[in-house]
């Protein structure tokens, strides 16, 4: 039975996609069977793993609207043991279309039900908003992973995000846990990073991943090659820390 | 007659808020009367200029739903000649509420009509999405300013953004111009920044602002003090470049 992770934070640019791409690749490299689901209309996870959005016949849009089953839209990535349920531009219209549909918050959860057993981990990359697409991910998930960039504005939005998570836990998915906050783009040279990290640890205590992702330019170069960091530059600091995070996530899974 | 600018890009974390806060403050410092409108439910521009979102009686939410006039929600900032129409958390529900309302795309434009004459420039900070709030800003605007972070993923979304701008130009606001793309977080030490900047200049030609915003840690520290950069650290590189951008924007306004 796979563990489903929603990677969510409505603050933009905090490292949701970078984490979805590189954590899923690192879990696959560690021998796990992994599916990554891209429900962000920007489709950055889809292109970050080398797929060409224009060539895709089906996408997560068709699955959410119930036109096809999840299996039909799933594609292999260039990495063994890593599959992807890709996003295309038509996903941009999904939120408005979903609003008036029955069980609109459960569409993704229902779609994943028949494919969950094939994977050890399913990671869902969310858009920078708290709308219906992110609510679908939180309703489908066992755990939510919250990337927090070590900057001031990223702290501000956490209250809003947690209140939506609580709403989902009470009304839609009592099973959902805040498994952890992941500190990203940590720059040891600045006080700001240190202050934000202290603040986050004070508030979230043991729900902060021990692995901290430093700012590393190789991570921002890899997407232009459509590769995860462990393919683009396996010796980089970025590749190391995401593999360290994968080990931490696997150990957590064993506790469940 | 004030010039209305929408600061928009659905890619998250590209510097929309940082530009809204610091360009508006720099325009005010140059003697212009400026209003900054925060229509992002995150409310980062509101707190970035030192307002406490919890203490606000009215906000842009009440204005969009037609409960009050714009004037009633406008507040002075700590800077002379800079006012703000703030956002609060209830704005998060606005998109779903607006969907079923009459002339839903024109709510902001109508709200600004009676106050436009009091300001030389009105800047609107948008959320990281292409939903109804951003469409309201584009419908109300004379010009759109598109911040583009010098990173790969930021390039990818430009096509989608431009097609929404074209849609707004044909159906809602034929007057809207793409005044310019602003390159942000430029890091001269990396090839990536150079490559992205070249790519953007090739595509947008003369519609790229000459001012390029470099990565500057003082810009990311200022928000935690609720201050624009020219108050927090007037001698910093960040303060200099945003004042340079203000001069460029003023010169453009004179051409119109
Ligand atoms: N640790 C890091 N070091 C350096 N650059 C990074 C790091 N993590 C992410 N980036 C870069 O920062 C930018 C933002 O990251 P990313 O796109 O993953 O964030 P996001 O939260 O998915 O954004 P959005 O809110 O738009 O979906 C990207 O250009 C990415 O390449
Ligand atoms: N030139 C810069 N140098 C250094 N840091 C910057 C710069 N511009 C913005 N930042 C920081 O980068 C982060 C993202 O910027 P900002 O919040 O302004 O982007 P945004 O596009 O408004 O994000 P969102 O999509 O969430 O609204 C913030 O923490 C900000 O302080
Ligand atoms: Mg993303
Ligand atoms: Mg912003």
What are the salient characteristics of this protein?
homodimer; alpha/beta; 7 strands; 256 residues; binds magnesium ion
Main sheet attributes: strand count, strand direction, barrel closure of chain A: 7 strands, mixed
> Which class of secondary structure composition applies to the elements of chain A?
alpha/beta
Helix content of chain A: 40-55%
Oligomer: homodimer
What fraction of the residues of chain A are assigned to beta strands by DSSP? Answer: 5-15%
Shape of chain A: globular
What binds here, in terms of ligands, is:
adenosine-5'-triphosphate, magnesium ion
Largest interface: A-B, 39 and 39 residues
Distance between the termini of chain A: 11 Å
Q: Please tell me the overall pLDDT of chain A.
A: 96
Poorly predicted runs of 5 or more residues of chain A: none
Question: What is the N-to-C succession of helices and strands of chain A?
Answer: EHEHHHEEHHEHEHHEHHHH
Short description:
The structure is a homodimer of 256-residue chains. Chain A has 256 residues and is α/β, with parallel strands linked by helices. Chain A has 13 helices and seven strands.
Secondary structure: elements and pairs:
Two copies of one chain form a homodimer.
Chain A (H helix, E strand, L loop, with lengths): L2 E5 L8 H14 L4 E5 L5 H5 L11 H5 L5 H4 L1 E2 L5 E4 L8 H6 L7 H7 L7 E5 L6 H9 L2 E7 L2 H5 L1 H14 L5 E8 L6 H14 L12 H5 L7 H4 L4 H19 L1
The structure holds adenosine-5'-triphosphate (2 copies) and magnesium ion (MG) (2 copies).
